[in-house]
Amino acid sequence: MTQATIDFAQFPRVALCHQPTPIEPMKRLSGHLGGPSLFIKRDDCTGLATGGNKTRKLEFLVGEALKAKADMLVTQGAVQSNHVRQTAAAACHVGLKCHVVLERRVPGRDASYEETGNVFLDKMFGATSEFRPAGLDMNAQAEAVCDKLRAEGHSPYFIPGGGSNATGALGYASCAQEIAQQCASGGMSFDWLVMGTGSTGTQAGLVAGFQAIGYDLPVMGVSVRQPHERQVAAVHGLTQKTLDVLGGPAIGADKILVDDGYVGEGYGIPADTTLEAIRLTARQEGILLDPVYSGKGMAGLIGMVRGGFFKPDERVLFLHTGGSTALFAYEDQILASMG
User: Fold this and answer.
1) How confident is the model at residue 35, as a pLDDT?
2) Nearest Cα residue to 132 out of 122, 140, 120, 121
3) How far apart are CA 127 and CA 153, in angstroms?
4) Model pLDDT, residue 105
5) DSSP states of 58-79 as a string?
6) In the prediction, which pLDDT does 300 show?
7) Which of 216, 310, 214 shows the shortest CA–CA distance to 259?
8) CA separation for the pair 253, 231 (Å, rounded)
9) Do residues 324 and 44 lie in contact, with contact meaning Cβ atoms separated by under 8 Å?
10) CA proximity to 256, closest of 273, 278, 234, 289
11) For residue 2, what pLDDT is reported?
12) CA distance 159 to 149
C-alpha cells in the first residue's frame, strides 16, 4: 500500500501519453524459462509516435518549454535515438519546431542506418538535424546549437539526451505512483522491477517516485552502456535531484541497483544475449523489443532468471521502454540470429 501520494498537477505538464499503460502477464515466457512469474509494464504503448518511455518525460519537459514561451525544442541523441523521435513528434503535437543533434555513436553501420527506423520518423515529423562524430559531450554540443539559434532570433528549449534531468524524471516518478495504484486496485504485488537503464532518467524517476510515496519495490537497472560504478553514480545523482524537486527524503546509493553484465561490445551493439531476448520475447509473447534498450534489459532479466537470482515464487515486473522502430535499422543482424 502506498503511504503518500504526489500531486503532479503542481508541475507544468502537457498531455502526450496514453496512461495508465497496461501490466500484462508473460505466461509463455515464464513457462519457457521455468522461473518466477514474469509480467510486463507496456510503456511501449504510451501512444506518441509508436510509443516509448520518453513520452512520460516529455509531458513535463514540453510543459516547461511552453511555460518558457519557447518556439522550438532542441535535443540530442544517438542516430537511432527513440528519445529524438518522440521529441520530434511532441514538438509537432504542440506546434513547436524541433532541431536535433545526432551522434554517430554506433560503429560499423552501413549508410542505411542513418536513413531508416527512427531517423525516417524524425524526418516525417519535420525535425531538422545535424550529425556529430562519436565521443563528444553531446549535451554541450546541443547547448552550443541553442546559443547559435538564439543569436538567430529563436527561443529554443534545450532537452538533454534521453530527457534525463530532474524535470524529465518526473515522468517516471509519476509512473511509479501509477504502478503502485495499479497494484492496489488490481490486487497485485511484485517483488522486483527490471528495466534497461541508459541516460538514467527512467530508473532515477522510478526510484525517486517509489521513495517519495513510501512504496517498497526494488528497481534493477540493466545497463545498456556504462559500467556498474558509473551507472550507479549517475542514477543516484539524478534520483536525489528528483527527490529534491518532489520534496522527498534523501536516498542512499545502496538503493540504486545496476547489472552491467549485458552491455556487450557497447551502446547500440546487440550482444548475442540481446538478439536471443528479442527472438524469445517475439516468439513467446508476440511482443517486439528493440536492440538498444529493451532488448538488453530483457536479456538481463532472462539471465537473472537462469542464474537463480529470483526465487521461484517471486513476481517480477519488466518495464518495456519501447523502441521497436529501431529494429528496421538492424534488420540483417536480427534476421541472421533467427536461424
Assistant:
1) 87
2) 140
3) 18
4) 97
5) HHHHHHHHHHTT-SEEEEEEET
6) 98
7) 310
8) 11
9) yes
10) 234
11) 41
12) 14
Tell me which DSSP letter residue 49 carries: G
Q: Which letter, b or e, does each residue of 285-295 get, where b requires 16 or more Cβ atoms within 10 Å of its Cβ? A: bebbbbbbbbb
Examine the residue annotation and report whether 81 is marked as an active-site residue of this protein: yes
Q: Please give the pLDDT value at position 339.
A: 72
Strand partners, 100: 75, 129
Catalytic residue among 81, 164, 199, 324: 81
Each domain of the chain, given as residue ranges in start order, spans 8-52+165-338, 54-163
Give residues with Cβ within 8 angstroms of 276, minimum separation 6: 299, 302, 337
| Best CATH choice for the domain 54-163 from the list 3.90.1150.10, 2.60.40.420, 3.40.50.1100, 3.40.50.150 | 3.40.50.1100
Q: How far is CA 244 from the centre of its chain?
A: 21
Q: How many residues does the chain have?
A: 339
Hey, which residues does 73 pair with through a beta bridge? 98, 157
Looking at residue 62, its pLDDT comes to 98
Distances in Å between the Cα of 331 and the Cα atoms of 93, 264, 326 are 30, 19, 9
Per residue in 83-142, pLDDT (tens digit) is 999 999 999 999 999 999 999 999 999 999 999 999 999 999 999 999 999 999 999 999
**Residues in the chain, pLDDT under 70:** 1-3
Per-residue CA distances from 76 to 38, 101, 317 (Å) = 34, 5, 30
Predicted local distance difference test score (pLDDT) of residue 248: 87
Q: Which of the listed CATH numbers 3.30.360.10, 3.40.50.1100, 3.40.50.1980, 1.10.3720.10 matches domain 8-52+165-338?
A: 3.40.50.1100
> Do 8-52+165-338 and 54-163 have matching folds?
yes
